[in-house]
Every structure is written in C-alpha cells, then in structure tokens.
Amino acid sequence: RATLLLSRCLLKMVKGNIIVPEDILSFCCNGLQGSSTSPPRAWEPGEREEAAGAMASPSPARNPTEVQMSQLVLPCHTNHRGELSTGQLLKWIDTAACLSAERHAGCPCVTASMDDIYFEHTISVGHVVNIKAKVNRAFNSSMEVGIQVSYEDLCSGKHCSICKAYATFVAQGPLGSKVRLKPLTPQTEEEKIEHSIAAERRRMRLVHKDTLKDLLTHSPQETELETRDGSGAVPAGRTRVESVELVLPPHANHQGNTFGGQIMAWMENVATIAASRLCHAHPTLRAIEMFHFRGPSQVGDRLVLKAIVNNAFKNSMEVGVSAEAYGQEMSVSRRHINSAFMTFVVLDREGQPRTLPMVAPEPGDGERRYREASARKKIRLDRKYVVSCKQTEVPLSVPWDQSNKVYLSYNNVSALKMLVAKANWVLAREKEKVRMYTLEEDKFLSFRIEISVCIPAGRAFSLLSNLRRRHEWDSHYLSAELVQKVDDDDMIYHVVSRKLRHENKPQDFVILASRRKPCSKGDPYVVAFRSVTLPTHPARAEFARGETLCSGFCIWPESEEMSKVAYYNQAMPGYLNYVTTNVAGLSSDICSTFEACEKFLLKNKEDLISRLQDF
User: Fold this and answer.
1) Going by fewer Cβ within 10 Å, which terminus of the chain is more open, N or C?
2) Burial class for 311, CB neighbours closer than 10 Å (0-12, 13-18, 19+)
3) What's the rounded Cα separation, in Å, for the pair 228 and 167?
C-alpha cells in the first residue's frame, strides 16, 4: 500500500505540480519500513489503473521462472586491478539461479552442481553486471537453470557477454526431503531448444567422471615432466594453501545452509593464492570446471579450504581446490562437500598470457593429479570447442577419440534437437500420408519428412537406429559396417552408398549414430547421425568421401500402436540439387524412400507378431 500511495503522489507531482503533504510522505516511509499499522482498505475507483500508470511500462510476457539481476560494480567488489572479483560474480550468479529455481519449485532449493564456466572478459568498477537466469527443464526432483551474464558500460552504452552457465538445483521439502517437481512447458523456440538439450547436458554430467577415467586408461603412463627439461620446475608443495572459514548467518540462506556461491567464492580465493605462489604475480581466472556439491554445510560449521597447483602448461595452470566441513573445533571427522578445478593465466601489460614455470608434482597423489590435469585440459579444449560452437562452426571431419567422444555425441544429438525445435518449417509437398517440409537458413536447406505408422514407437526406434538394416528400405544405401560400438547408445558405421547419376564412383561415409530414449513423457525417441573421422578408415580412391552435418529420426508415440516418424536432414551444398529437385516435384524419390521405410516397419512388426504367436 505504501508503494502504491507513493507512486500516486509522484504521478500527481509530475502531472499537476501538486505538493505532496508531509503526512502522506510520512505514511509512505513508515509503510516501506514495515511500521504502519493502518488496516488495508479497498481499491478506490480508477486507483489500480492510476497506480499501474505510475509504474514503468510493463515488459513483454516472459518465462515465469525468469529472474533478472543488475549490480553496479563498486570498489568493494573488485581486486587490486579494479576488476570485479570472480568470487563476487559467482555469488551473484548463484543467487540469481537459486531464486529462479525456487520460483518454479515453490520451495527452498539448494545448488547441486555448476557446469563449466568460461570467462570471456573482465569487468571494471562502474560497469553494471546484468544476470538473467531461468529454469530450462525440470526433472523428477532436480532442475537445470540457464544463466547468462553480461556487462554494461553506462558511459558508452556498450554491452558485452561475460559467460554462460548451467546450474543444477534440487528442491528440498521438510527435513531435507526431496520434492517432486512439476514439469516445465517451454513457450518460445529458444526455450524449446534449451528444454530439449537439457536432457543431453544432464547425461553428459553423469558420465563426466567416466570420461576422465577412460582417457587416463588409454593415455601414456609417462608424465609430461618426464618428456621435458624439468630442471627449473617449481615443487608443487610450495603452492599448497589451507584456509578455514566460519559459516556465519550472512553466509547462509533462509534454511541455514551455506550459499553455494559463497563456498565457490571462498574456493576461488584460495585457488588464486595457490596460483600466485607459482607465478609470483596476480593471476586471472579463465575457467572453472564443474562444481559438484556433495553435501550441505550449515551456520556454525567450519569450512577447511585446500588448494594446490596440479599442473602448469605453457600459458595456463590448473589449480585443484577442495572444501571440507566440520561442526566443532574438537571434531575429528570432516565432511568433503565440494571439489573443483580452476584454470588461471597471467597476463602481461598487453593482455597476453605469459609463459609459466613448470611444476614438479609430489610423489603419489601429486603425480596422479598431475596426469589427471593433463587429461582434463584435453577434455576441456574438446568440450569447449565441440559443445560451445554453433552448429555451422563445427567442422564435419572432427576426429573421434577418447577425450571428445562424449561431447561429439552431445553435439550430434543436440544439433538434431535444435533442428527439430525450429519454428519456420514450410509444407512443401504432401503425398498421401507422407508430408515434406523445408526450412531455409543461411547456407543450409533443411528438410523434414514425416509419416504416421501403425507400430509402437519403441519398436520403430530399434529398427531405424540399426544402420546395418537401412539398405532394406533405403535404395541409396549399399552397405553399412559397424566399425566401433562405443556404448549401448553410440555406434560408428562405415556406410557405402550407391553411385548416383552423373557421378563416377559411389560415396562412402563414416557416421556416428547416437540414439536416445525419451527422458520424460512427451519426449521423442531420437536417432542422430553426423560424420566423424577415424584414423582406421581414411578416404579411399574407390570412393568419394561424403559428409553429413546433421540428420536423423525423431519418433513420437501417438498411441500404444501408432507412432509419428519424422526424418530430418540439414543438407550440405553438394546435396542441394538432389533436395531441390524433390521439392520442386520433379522426382518422387524422397517420398518413395519414406514409403519404403513405412513398409519395412510394418513388415517387421508383422514378423515379430508371427514369431510371438509361434512361441
């Protein structure tokens, strides 16, 4: 009420130069301080509209979970260079993300993890930090929150992106019990894309540790120190830092649990000290690898923070940080609540990374951390390159190896899901039950062909994901050899196609096939294809090596016995003549192929029913 009355008074001052009586100003101030005891009264005629008019014009409808935060960077927020402290930025990011999560959950939420963060620029005093956070997808009891951070220079009007992050939050009920979340329905094209890809990012988080172990298993046992001149190496023990923090009420949320952002800020502080002890300079944080919160800490807990430089490369270093909690000073047992790995660089006066001294690892665990740091660096580079690139920027012939297999699989599935979520598809042709749509974007002409088939979706998914059987319905396929079974969901095939007209030799492809079952109700079955490079299958003279950027199937259950099958292909320039011929109606090749696909599915359904009856 106080805010409303103050707005009305301000409105009258603007419109009629009316002086606001002191008693009204006093009432407004008291109301804002929560000291007013006057009973609420009903709205007067036109009062609601007048109050609305006094406020800023309403913004367009947006995601109900969206939270926007703007913070003016003051000297108390900065480091010795007058740049915003990364620890302070992490606290703001975590706060905005937590508020967004709680808007959707309707109950308290805690930070479970924070994905990799790459800081593109630094922020100076006087800049405004703008943070936007919104829930991308809700799973059973956890949800993914997407965060975008940018800064604004109020003097020049310049806006610049700082980073993009994804955090996972868990909703908590009474006594810390998990809460089942309601599903989130995306509205815009962007929200649909993020909602669809969130399931793939979740899968990538779950297999992150396995990826590291697999890479270490296949990498050489000798360390980098053994292959270089380590005479000037700095013992890693000299960079070791240990610090303790007492969790006070300002460090905790309304549940009494320590803010995840506060813990991250403390960890960044000790990591910076460890990095400084190696380079004897003030380092700059460039990247943070996934934070995983293993458990909570509360007001009154002591947090022991430990950091050490695991490895130093030519222009960057990795610092490992851990956080342990205990309740009383005499307590012997400590709870490991978090670990993280941070990448630092040291910039010269021109802003270029300086060469760093080498690190001599400690025996035992130090050597293990040294090797793991090298493996993580390779994974980080591959992940940043493959995952963060736009689809048009990822080259077709990306080599497949142990370090990037998870992220190529992610890129394969997410690219198809992004294509599916596009909103500007145009119906180009319809023949009986087959419908063909096209989408023109930049240098790509994408097409989608869909049909409803009387077959369970799971069965159609199993048949269409097996490329070795594709020649049974697709006349363009001559053979498909399974080259490598990566796991149950990802396989690599060597495919040979028939020679088309006006071509001297047939094409061959090395294709990664990634299959995904629905993550939740309403999701389709997905089979995604993209080209990769294998050293065991180089281009050969008898074939013309072909490549596919993005293609695959999405299968939606319409009932227990009916499925909608859709095939997508983002056509490359060499394939455009074939596609445009079909779009123009001069050939029915595509439609005929898809009708053959329907017959193949129905035939295999009948064969299965017959075998079951015989059994």
Assistant:
1) C
2) buried
3) 39
| Cα–Cα dist 142/544, whole Å | 47
Return d(Cα 355, Cα 358) in angstroms, integer.
10
Burial (CB count <10 Å: 0-12, 13-18, 19+), residue 236: buried
| Paired tokens of 64 | 């109900």
DSSP string, 474-502: -TTEEEEEEEEE-SSSEEEEEEEEPPPTT
Q: Which residue has the higher pLDDT, 484 or 432?
A: 484
Mind listing the domains of the chain with CATH numbers?
66-218+233-382 (3.10.129.10), 393-604 (3.30.530.20)
List C-alpha distances in Å: 508 to 14, 538, 539.
Answer: 74, 10, 8
- Distance of alpha carbon 64 from alpha carbon 55, whole angstroms: 20
Does 573 have pLDDT greater than 60?
Answer: no
Query: CA 365 to CA 371: how far, in whole Å?
Result: 10
Q: How far is it, in rounded angstroms, from Cα 411 to Cα 395? A: 12
Tens-place pLDDT, residues 514-572: 999 998 888 999 999 988 888 888 888 888 888 888 899 999 999 988 999 999 988 75
Q: Which residue has the tokens 């460890």?
A: 274
In this prediction the pTM is: 0.76
Q: How confident is the model at residue 253 (pLDDT cuts 50, 70, 90)?
A: confident
pLDDT of 49 above 60: no
Rounded to the nearest 10 degrees, the angle between the axes of helix 405-420 and helix 208-218 is: 140
Reported as half-sphere exposure (CB side, CA atoms, 13 A), residue 422 has a value of 21
Q: Which is nearest to 379 in space by CA: 356, 408, 413, 353? A: 408
Q: Taking all residues of the chain, what is their mean pLDDT, rounded to a whole number?
A: 81
Pick left, alpha or beta for residue 551 (phi over 0 → left; psi -120 to 50 → alpha; otherwise beta).
beta
Residues sharing a CB contact under 8 Å with residue 157, sequence separation 6 or more, in sequence order: none
What string of DSSP letters covers 268-317? HHHHHHHHHHHHSS--EEEEE--EEE-S--BTT-EEEEEEEEEEE-SS-E
Question: What are 55-86's pLDDT values in tens digits?
Answer: 455 555 678 999 999 999 999 998 888 899 99
* 275: Cβ contacts below 8 Å, ≥ 6 apart: 239, 283, 309, 317, 319, 342, 344
